[in-house]
Each structure stands twice: as C-alpha cells, then as structure tokens.
Specification:
The structure is a homodimer of 434-residue chains.
Chain A: H1 26-34, E1 40-41, H2 54-72, H3 82-93, E2 104-107, H4 109-121, E3 127-132, H5 136-144, E4 148-155, E5 158-159, H6 161-173, E6 178-183, H7 197-209, E7 213-217, E8 241-246, E9 258-261, H8 264-278, H9 283-295, H10 298-323, E10 328-329, E11 337-341, H11 348-357, E12 360-361, E13 363-364, E14 377-381, H12 387-411
Parallel strand pairs in A: 1-12, 3-4, 3-6, 6-7, 7-8
Antiparallel strand pairs in A: 2-9, 4-5, 8-9, 10-11, 11-14, 13-14
Helix pairs in contact in A: 2-9, 4-5, 4-8, 10-12
Chain lengths: 434, 434
Amino acid sequence: MTNQGNNLDRWYDSYAQRTAGLAASEVRALFAVASRPEVVSLAGGMPFVSALPRDLVTGAMERVMRENGPVALQYGSGQGAPMLREHILEVMALEGIRGSVDDVVVTTGSQHALELVSKIFLDPGDVVLAEGPSYVTAMVVFKSFQAQVEHVATDDDGLVPAALRERIARLKADGKRIKFLYTVPTFSNPSGVTLSWERRLEVLEIARSNGILVLEDNPYGLLYFDSPPPHAMRSVEEEGVVYLGTFSKTLAPGFRVGWALAPHAIREKLILANEAAVLSPSSFTQLIISEYLSTADWRGQIDTFRNVYRERRDAMLQALGDYLPDLSWTVPHGGFYVWLKLPDNIDSKSMLPRAVKELVAYTPGTAFYANGDGRNFMRLAFCYPTPDFIREGIRRLSTVINGELELLNTFSQTSPLATIRPEHNNISPPANLG
Amino acid sequence: MTNQGNNLDRWYDSYAQRTAGLAASEVRALFAVASRPEVVSLAGGMPFVSALPRDLVTGAMERVMRENGPVALQYGSGQGAPMLREHILEVMALEGIRGSVDDVVVTTGSQHALELVSKIFLDPGDVVLAEGPSYVTAMVVFKSFQAQVEHVATDDDGLVPAALRERIARLKADGKRIKFLYTVPTFSNPSGVTLSWERRLEVLEIARSNGILVLEDNPYGLLYFDSPPPHAMRSVEEEGVVYLGTFSKTLAPGFRVGWALAPHAIREKLILANEAAVLSPSSFTQLIISEYLSTADWRGQIDTFRNVYRERRDAMLQALGDYLPDLSWTVPHGGFYVWLKLPDNIDSKSMLPRAVKELVAYTPGTAFYANGDGRNFMRLAFCYPTPDFIREGIRRLSTVINGELELLNTFSQTSPLATIRPEHNNISPPANLG
C-alpha cells in the first residue's frame, strides 16, 4: 500500500490486497525528467516514430474510413479483427513461427497481453521466473497479481540453463508453485542480450519437463542490426509457449496494438479476459494497421527502423569506448538497450539526481530486479536520441561517473579507486552479466 | 473453471482461481447470431455509428497527423492526454459535474475503467451491490475478481432506497465486506429506467453512512429523448463517487476511449493500474477525439444521435403496443434499451433459439442477473436497427411469444394461459420492475 496520504484517503481500508503491489516504477518518475528538452534521455524506451512516414498512416486511415468506416468505428470481436490476425501470422512467420489465425488474440499493446496472461494464471504467492535483469513493467504486472518474481542468472547468451534448473529445483523443494517463465529472449530489455539457439532448446526442455509454461515476449526480434537472431522459441514449441508480439516497435506504440499467440485452451481464456477488460480492442487502430500491412512496404519500413537504430547503437558503443573505456557493457545486436556495469561501489539510483543535474538521464539497474539487485548497473537506451545526442549524453554520463568516483575516493579511503578517464577509440569487449 | 476440454488442456491445473469466474456471457454468443444479415437483432447494444459523418473523423485525424504526428504515434501518459482530459471536463459539465483535470484518468473504453476499479478494490469474497437487473459485462468483471454480486431491487425510478438499506444491513449482519455499489443511474442498461433526483440523494446518503463507494457508470446520460435527466450523482458528491464516462455512445466505440473521474487517492491507484495494464491508452485515438472536440460541433452531433435514437425508441414502443399489447415494458427517456416482461412461465433464454429461427434476436433477462433471476424478461435494444426493422423485429417476436404460449398451453393444461393477440395502437403503461 502506498504510504502517502493514508489519513487523507477515506478509502484506504477498502483497497484489495493486491493493490499493495501496485507501486510507481522507477521508470515512471523518469518519464517526467526525460521530457525536459535540455536533458539527453537515455532512460525511456520510446521508439523513434518520426522515422515512420506520416502519409503511410494517413493514407491507410483514409482508405479504412472510405471503405470500411462503420466497421472501424464499431465494437469488434474480443479476439481481434480477423484480417489483422491473418497479417500477424505473416509478421510472425519472419521469425519462424507457424500458427493458426484462431490462436491469435489481439491486445491493447503486448503489455495488455502480459496483464491478461497474469490475470488468468496468477494466484497470490505463485512464482514467476524471470531473467535477472528483466523488463520492469512485466514485473509490476506480476506483482500486482501478488506473484513472487524469482530471477534466473543471465550471461551474454541470455538465461543460463544450469541456473534455471537449480532455481526450479530449489523453489519446488520449498513447495512453491511456479506458474511460468517470463523471458525476452531476443535483444532483451534491459540487457540487450540474446538467448542462443542451443539454449532456447535447452530452456524449452527444462520448462517442459517441469510443467512450466514459457511466456515469450518478443517486441524487438525484427529489429536486428547484424545477422538475424535465432528463431523464436515458439517456432519449435507450440503447446508450452504463449508468445507475445507488438506493433509498437515495428510501426508505432500510439496505436496500442499487440497480440498473444497461445495454445487453444489458453487462447480461449485470454479472449474471455480481454472481453471483460475492454470488450474488444480498438477496431479503428486495428483496421488502420491491417490496411497498412496490406498496402505499404512494411518490411522496407522495418529495414528503415533497423538502419536508424543500428546507427544509434554504433554511436553509443563508440562513445562508451571513448568516454568510459574502463567500464564494461553488453553489445546488443538489435533492439533498444545497452546494459552498463559500473564499479561495484557506485549506486546508479542514488547517482541519478546528479546525472540529471548534468542533463543526462538513464534507468537505474535496480528497476529491473524484483529483489534490489542491480545497484551498480544501468540501462542505456539508444532508440530515441540522435547519434550526436547519444555521444553527448555518454560524455555527460562519464563526467557524472567520474565525479561520483572522486566523491567516493574522498569519503572512503579504505578502497583505492581510480578515476576513470575518458580515452578514445577503445571499445570494450562485451560485459559478462553472470 | 470451464469444463470443456479439460483433458485436452495441459495447463488446466495452472489457472488462477479467479479464472473459474471467467465464463462466456450470454451476450457474447449472441454477437455471432446477430451478425447474420437476415436476423433483426434487438440483442447487441451497438451504437449507430453511421450517423457520424465520416469526414469529421478523417479531418480530425489528418490534422492530428499533420500537426502532432510524433505525439499521436508515441507512448503517452498512463493518465491520458492532458488536452483530452480538459475536453472531458467540458463533456461532464453538461451533466452538472465539476472536477479537476488531475482527477480524470483516460481508459480503454469505460469497460477498462470498470476492470481497473475492480482490480484495485476487490478481494475474493467481497460484495459488489448492483441494480437488479444490471449491466452484464460489469458483473463479468466483478466475478472475474472473485467478488459476489448482490442485486438491489429497482422500479421505474431506479434503485429502491429501502431495498438498498435492507440489503446492506443483511449483508453486514452476515459479516460481508461490501466494497461498492455499481449503478447505471441514467437510462440503465438493461432496463432503461432512470434513478430520480430525490433517490440519487438518498442513495448517496445511504452509501456515505455505510462507508460504501458508489461506482456511477454513465454511458447514456447525454442521449436523452425528452427532457434532460437529473444531474449525475457525482455532481453532488465528490469523495464518495467514482464516475465513469465514455465516448463510445456520443462518438464511436471503435476508438475505445472512456474515462474515470475519481477522488485523488483512488485516481492515483487507477493510474498505476492503468500503466501496469496497458502502459498508456492509445495516444492516436485520444488525440483524434481531442481534435474532434476542439473543432467539430460535437454537441450538434450528440443532438443528431439523440434524434436517431428517439425515432427508434418511438418505433419500438409503438410496435410493442401494436403487437404485444398484453405485455408490459419500461419506457426509456434516453439510452438504448427497453426491458420487456413476459408471462411468468416463459423462459426467454430457452425461447431464444426459436426466436432466431424466426429471424429475430434479443438478450435473455438472466444475462443481467448474477443469481439466475430474470427468466421471464428480455432486453430489447433499439439503438442499431432502423425503425422499419425494429417494427418487423417486434412483429416476429410477437409470433415467437405467441407460439411459445400455445406450446405451453398445449403441454400444461393446469394453468390457463391466453394467447396474446396483436392489437393496434395500444401502448401499455410502463412496467413496474419491483
């Protein structure tokens, strides 16, 4: 329960127990900070929607209203528009997924699919396994249904299978009920790492043999910069995976259109939960996206996004090598994020106000753990600022970090810490997150 | 838990307990039936969106994309777009409501506000009070959070205060925890009746003195046909009411934009719940509606809708008087619905297949009760079909009802039942629903 203002809240004693788990995320407060124009925000994961030609959207919308207006303006099916679901199959086929249009449920962004899956599966005290670190607002959802999030260690190839096996065994020994494994296996948020193909098979086998559902969240898979990533886990396992996709990154988040592809019985419950929650997702935005996918070169548009984000990823890696050469970070081959490791004694959350004073923002590592871990990590998003701003942001960040180290050196003479000095043209190898 | 296909569902034992409460509503199955063009559907509550000039929507959208494209395509605030919230205050002012833009939370249709309020308030076993009959998909939401719906009797002036007092006393004596009173006080779904002004004050006083929150759901208030209805309950009580509104009936449901106006502390929790559920409502549809409200004669458009629905209400009342003069029904002064009372021994749900065979559909009364009541009632929606189709639908319905009565007369000689014969120009007085 939020402690502020109890005395002012006449309904304080009326809230459901689960409401105690609904706390403002650290990312949330950052959105306000990041919106000030003088701040270089490496915090929020906002797609660069300006790379989407405006007339593609306007044209699709005009055709929808001309040819199908009364349908676009009306309530629709709780499962989503049939034609859009056909298009979604085409999109998923790019990542090796074959499925039936009957098993796709359109949702209000893939975030709402997370909410619906959680609502139908999670009782209080249930366990959800998640990568350490994991997507912050997924954990907010799990906790809002009173589930316990248990992290599994990751390294540069994603989830560590041995750690997953060990964690499951220990939780089962403790009598815990594990409902599902939540994973962003491709270009993870926040770490940017990708689960290797061999590990995908191994993780699926571990889940299968333990009767644990896999919730595969894949917003970034099509935004690869180098070679394509391994196929989705759903491509080789149908009955044990609920797969989540979205148009937020390949088109635009303002439409709030995502989807779940689920085994039959689960899909049926997702539709009922979707109807209860919103009656039906927006026909208007669904039909516009469907028209866009029918008529525009959407694969070419994804290439455009890839090129934009690749350039920004490169700018960030270059700047990190130039300004923070003694630190380590992940090297993402797609997506939006780099995960930066700071010296052990720096707390990225307590450093944030000083960073904002220096006009740069990031997301502290603790936001991505349910257990307080991640103190000396931060997530750096390269999706939104231009390459020049990214470089300037990293320069400012290096000033902040160096200032922090000097401060720590001054007040703590016990541990000898060198100030990290900017050096140029020296990109570090990938960090090991294990 | 749905019983179908347990053996086929490998995840059957994994669902949350609340999922047992997520059953397909009776209205849901009807949407499939109603979509066949040869059936006159008096079942679904679909607004007649064709009365909205297409260019009003297209023009607003073009301006939004031209002037504000990157904002419309981006994630927004979990509370909703500030300018739209300003407009929402103007809309609510028409029903006597004064509030702060800070206390409005935009949701994915007002249905999602119902879901969010339920999520933050309802623990398993909690009681929600609701009119008998009440809106079906609200009850689906309450039950999906394992709450118990308790009906309070209504008559032609809405909720009966004495019945409300008595019900609260009895539930409290039983040790029940009553979380809120859910009410559609104006042009109720399904009964079409309106809570009188005197009773609004009395119901608010009863709620206040018992520490019970009022959830005032008002989708139809601006769609009055005769004189304006009493002001909203929220107009005289701020701290004890969460008010829900929507653009689904005054504009179009395809946008999925509604809202809650809530006391400060509750509003804060609604925002957090909204962020967890969908990150933010659609910027794209919010900005289009905001632009529409800024530039179009939206009050004139509501008058257009009023005129369309008034004509249809009149057609339905006329046809009921002509074809089913011996039955009784409510006379709505706004909204979408008439509530028809059948002879006691007719079960409207079991009669439905025969009605569909006669090419007319309605919603059985039991859909609007959580306890099996309403067997000999039905909801007739006049919002969507043209007056001619409404008249033809009621003619077909009279054939079905007469056939049902003949059947009952044939098989049950114990109770002497007269067949109701169509007579003309004889509109019955309002039914008493008490």
